[in-house]
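#onboarding

Welcome to the new folks! Below is a worked example of what a typical request in this channel looks like: someone posts a single protein sequence, and someone else replies with the predicted structure as tokens. Don't worry about understanding the tokens yet, we'll cover that in week two.

Example request:
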Amino acid sequence: MDPRVAAALPPGRLERLRTWMEDERLDAAVLTGADEVNYLSGYLRYFGGPCALVVAGDGERTLVVGPDEAKVAERLSDADAVRCFGERGFGLELNPLPVLAGAVASVPAVASATRLGVSGALLDGRVGAQLVPGGESLRRLRMRKDADELTKILHAYELCWVGQQAVGDAAQSGEAREIDLFTAAQAAAQRAHGEPIEFLADVLSGPMTAEVCGPVHVASPRVAAPGQPVIADVVVRADGYAGDTAETHVVGSNPEAEAARATLLEILAHTGAGLQPGATGAEIFRRMKQRIVDAFPGGEFPHHGGHALGLTSFEDPHIIPSDDTPLEPGMVMAVEPGVYFPGRWGARVENVFVVTAGGGVELREALA
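Example response:
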């Protein structure tokens, strides 16, 4: 790991959660929903059912899942114990949440608590403890990533680049449709991961690249013809963490689009270097936009300049005019400058950086 990145990382997320619990004088915390359970136990399953995680004051974690998931949860999670709720089988209970709530309420750390941190309404009216909302604290906690999370985000990020390579290769035929390029990216990334992934992508070609992204234009039967640019913005979520990329490919040769891409990569590198603690998304956006406007007279920059990544592909903070959240060491930020000439063509690039005291470090370099 790059020493600059190692110095930027916070203590582990379980340790930081326990600090919050101590500050709030909580006896235990109950986290609900797949993302939060994954965040603090490492458990996420494709097509998984309702689940919850109990974190006791001493840090012991009890994962509560349906009985059919118990064995895989014991194998995949970092929880200290796995409990089951309900009966074996799928789709047999019309509303399983009350059953899950009952099982969570019976966990000793919950049953004996007088002050209980919660991230949702699962236990409302079901326990005698005072319930302390923790949603905002968890949101803040999630902004800074620890080493384990960086590894997971990097994996998803690398899968995105596998998809980008598939787009670039398939486009060179000059006969591939946008939807073919979209499908090639998804298939390549999913095969590389070896399990189902969550996948989102913009694939736009020729004059459609000036339409920026969905929902204005989505991958269609339009053929990416020789000499045309192709914008591919590929997002992959694997094992519960997300990566994001954008690239401008060219079918054959297009000197104008290739020159624009080269300039955007320079702006991208300059912006990434400015990802320092204390800087805000609003400040970074203004500088990025000015560089784009100066470099491309008549061009438009009608979208955000980037955003954080983590459990999802679009998290706080954001590189937009209205976000004054100061960056913090260990945040992971996707940076994506672009330029668009209505009716003609557009270009966009995107890389992911870790915020450090000396500026952003590209994620692939951060963990090299």
